[in-house]
Amino acid sequence: MLYKMSVKLAKKLVEHSEDKKEDIYIYGLELIISTIIGLSSILLISYMLSELKSGLIFIIMFVPLRLFTGGYHATTYGKCFVISNCSYLIILVLKYMMWDNTPSGIWIGLLIIASCYIAANAPVINQAQPISEYKQMHSKRIARYILITEIAAIAILSADQKDLMSMSVEFILGFVGYMDIV
Question: Is 11 helix (H, G, I), strand (E, B) or coil?
Fold first, then answer.
């Protein structure tokens, strides 16, 4: 379905462009549509569970970091959709199980360990999508800036939103898993 929709949209674009670019348009449109569907589903789940703030935190932290760190790529858009939604739900469940009973110092320690790991190992290069050395260095630098920004946001959340802070830390810990499964 995603492919068919992308093909139809690409054919419309090709009418006003070069025929040689149709495959590029199809790929790009598949990527855009699948991303919109995936993010929308997380927001819908969040809304249905009265956890809209948690869903927004997940998306705000996940998307920028994922763009520059690499890691696991599912073989189909459907698998990516399922994995992303399951990851979000697992982190949400863990938030409820752990945030109230875990001291802030432990969350901070876990955040530091996971952030150092990501900073040292990003970007993870997928064999199917190799990138140049320049792009690797650029991605590493951007990933570190994103981590610093996210750590600052987590510090702000820790002042009065410990549940969102713990979810943010859990997300970064979970992100280490995405990086290791290549």
Answer: helix
